[in-house]
Amino acid sequence: MIEFKTCSNCLECKPLEAFWLDNSNARDGRQPWCIACHEAYYLEHREHLLEVGRQWQAENAERMKEWNRSYYVENAEKIRRSESARYYANREEVIARRSAARAEHYNSPEAKAKREEEDRKREASAALKSTPEAQEKRRQELNAYNRDYHAANREAIRAKKKLYNEANKEKIAERRRLARLAKIAAEKGTEGTDGGN
Ligand SMILES: [Zn+2]
User: Fold this and answer.
1) Residue 9 Cα to ligand 1 middle (Å)
2) Which residues contact 14 (CB under 8 A, 6 or more apart)?
3) From the CA of 40, how far away is ligand 1's center (Å)?
4) How far apart are the CA of 45 and the centre of ligand 1, in A?
5) Measuring CA to CA, which of 57, 115, 138, 164 is 20 to 30 A from 77?
6) Distance 13 CA to ligand 1 centre (A)
7) How many angstroms separate the CA atoms of 29 and 34, rounded?
8) Stated pTM of the model
9) Domain extents for the chain?
């Protein structure tokens, strides 16, 4: 049996389903106005209702923020538990969804274009760095840097060198001796080659 109810606005008799639920109405648990009347009213007063809503939000923004904060603080443990329970119940699905979303993003034309653009930039910059001009420029920059560094730290470098030389006298003498021998050997070798030509 279908129950009917008369709308207190349009006075039409309509099935109960044409009225929204209203738990505060003890008689039939439905609102006095039918859905069509509510919707018509809403459309007619849309601008005004939106404005009222905006005003309420503006006036109560701080209070709502505070309410949300205190609700979260008071229920932090419960919220955390239910979130992690939900996470674990759907863990596989969540992981699968995330990795599918990642794969989809990775394969999207935008992401591909971005990767290609980055590759292009990297190659262009590498090509720029590897030209003889760029290498020469880099060499000159390094030379200039070394020159400036030495000029600015002349005394400190000299003092450090002196300390090192004093501490390594024998090693340095040995290195000089080996270098002399190497030079002599090289000269003899060159003479030998020259003789052959
Ligand atoms: Zn109505």
Assistant:
1) 5
2) 4, 5, 6, 7, 34
3) 9
4) 16
5) 57
6) 8
7) 13
8) 0.33
9) 1-71
Å from CA of 54 to ligand 1 middle: 27
Query: pLDDT, tens digit, for every residue of 51-88?
Result: 999 999 999 999 999 998 888 888 888 888 888 888 88
How far, in Å, is the centroid of ligand 1 from the Cα of 124?
71
Q: Is the pLDDT of residue 196 over 50?
A: no
Query: Which amino acid is located at 159 in the chain?
Result: A
State the distance from the centre of ligand 1 to the C-alpha of 160, rounded, in angstroms: 98
